[in-house]
TrEMBL record:
One of its GO terms (biological process) is transmembrane transport. Residues 394-424 are annotated as: Disordered. It comes from Leucobacter chromiiresistens. This is Membrane protein. Keywords: Cell membrane, Membrane, Transmembrane, Transmembrane helix, Transport.
Length: 424
């Protein structure tokens, strides 16, 4: 007689069909598989019912349709999901600051202090940048005719006209005629309206993200407790620890990246003011925002700032370019290792791969989020995957036998001290 309990435990390839028949026989209360259960063309399914191929195909097609519907819904809600993701990312980044302030104040007061500080910093940037931009745009509009006249009568314009012939002169004349024609004001106005709508949409998005960040920071602990409730009770302590590690890694990364950007912004403001660069506050803001982007952000901001300094004089641009070359070396070999090594432990190769992959998938936002996501994956692998693999010390075929005899799996494949040897 076949030992059906042993067959169900071991499940060897030669006894696979017997195992399936054993489960069907178990449901019917028989000692072994009956002929009706083991007859050809009869596939056990739960209590031994036959699977209808049409029903199976219909359920599969419905599953595909549901997946397509979910994908379409996610595509329509893409902007909303981006807002939620950015707000959650910022709230995790500001949560360590809130926790530190919470040692002296209640959590609502700590959240209010952090949000107030962020709003004050944002308002300060606007007060420093907007008046300068308005003044420069006003000067540009007032001096536009004189600037065009100066360009037309300049030496380099005459040289380009001599090199390119009448084609260059005709192109410039056509552009000027287009701008001066009143019938084209509608097209120009439509472009201006589109730009204004884009700016308004961006401002609305910033406001939504700030509001969501405020709510997420205020309810961060409740959100973590709710997430833990979805896990079985015997896994909750481990899951809670893992959740704290992941959120801590994201928070440390955000604080470290903002610290690097703040260093670049402050030093840029001081240096650009010393060399008398145009719009030093705006250029320092560009340096700050650029440093928030991993890998290419500082370089891109440095190129933009150097090009703007070229408007003032070639010497100013050369000085700014040399300064940023030196600063990028200091940031790469001194500032970034000291700050980011405490923030998030990700190997340099994975940082490059994560930043490039995140940028390819989600642009600037993807590049910003990619590195803390990589750090979170590393934490999960180190604390979940590796321990699970370390517990598997016997081949799969030998584990049920050890469970039957009640013997523990030996460590590192070595026999346990009390186990009899093969020679005995």
């Amino acid at each position: 007689m076949v030992d059906w309990h042993r067959v169900a435990l071991r499940g060897t390839p030669t006894e696979g069909n017997d195992m399936l028949r054993w489960w069907a026989a178990k449901e019917s209360g028989e000692e072994g598989p009956s002929k009706a259960v083991s007859s050809p063309g009869y596939i056990p399914w739960g209590n031994g019912a036959r699977i209808n191929p049409f029903t199976f195909g219909l359920l599969g097609a419905l599953g595909v349709l549901v997946a397509l519907l979910i994908g379409a819904i996610i595509g329509q809600l893409g902007t909303v999901l981006v807002y939620v993701g950015v707000a959650l990312f910022l709230s995790l980044g500001l949560d360590p600051v809130v926790s530190r302030i919470e040692r002296r104040l209640p959590r609502p007061a700590a959240v209010a202090v952090v949000v107030g500080g962020v709003l004050l910093a944002f308002a300060g940037v606007l007060l420093a940048i907007v008046p300068v931009l308005v003044q420069q745009i006003t000067n540009l509009v007032e001096n536009a005719p004189q600037m065009v006249d100066d360009i037309v009568h300049s030496d380099w314009y005459a040289w380009l006209t001599g090199q390119l012939g009448t084609d260059f002169d005709s192109a410039i004349s056509g552009a000027l005629d287009f701008l001066q024609d009143p019938t084209n004001l509608g097209e120009i106005g439509g472009g201006i309206v589109a730009v204004g709508a884009g700016i308004a949409g961006g401002v609305t998005g910033v406001i939504i993200v700030l509001i969501l960040t405020l709510y997420f920071m205020a309810s961060m602990r409740a959100m973590k407790r709710l997430a833990v409730r979805f896990v079985p009770a015997y896994h909750r302590p481990r899951f809670r620890e893992l959740l704290e590690d992941v959120s801590g890694a994201v928070g440390r990364y955000v604080i470290g990246q903002v610290s690097l950007a703040l260093c670049n912004g402050v030093l840029s403001l001081v240096f650009l003011s010393i060399i008398d660069a145009p719009l030093p506050a705006l250029l320092a803001l560009i340096a700050f925002v650029g440093s928030l982007i991993p890998l290419v952000g500082t370089l891109s901001a440095s190129i933009i700032i150097t090009a703007v300094c070229l408007v003032n004089s070639p010497m100013t641009a050369l000085t700014a370019g040399i300064y940023y070359l030196v600063y990028m070396q200091i940031e790469a070999y001194v500032l970034s290792p000291r700050i980011m090594s405490r923030a998030v432990a990700v190997p340099g190769s994975l940082v490059v791969i994560a930043a490039v992959g995140g940028g390819a998938l989600g642009g600037i936002l993807g590049a910003l989020v990619a590195i803390p996501v990589a750090a979170s994956v590393i934490i999960i692998v180190q604390k979940v995957v590796f321990p699970a693999q370390d517990m598997k010390r016997l081949p799969p075929g030998e584990r049920p036998l050890a469970a039957e005899t009640g013997a523990a799996e030996p460590a590192d494949g070595l026999p346990s001290p009390g186990a009899p040897s093969a020679e005995a």
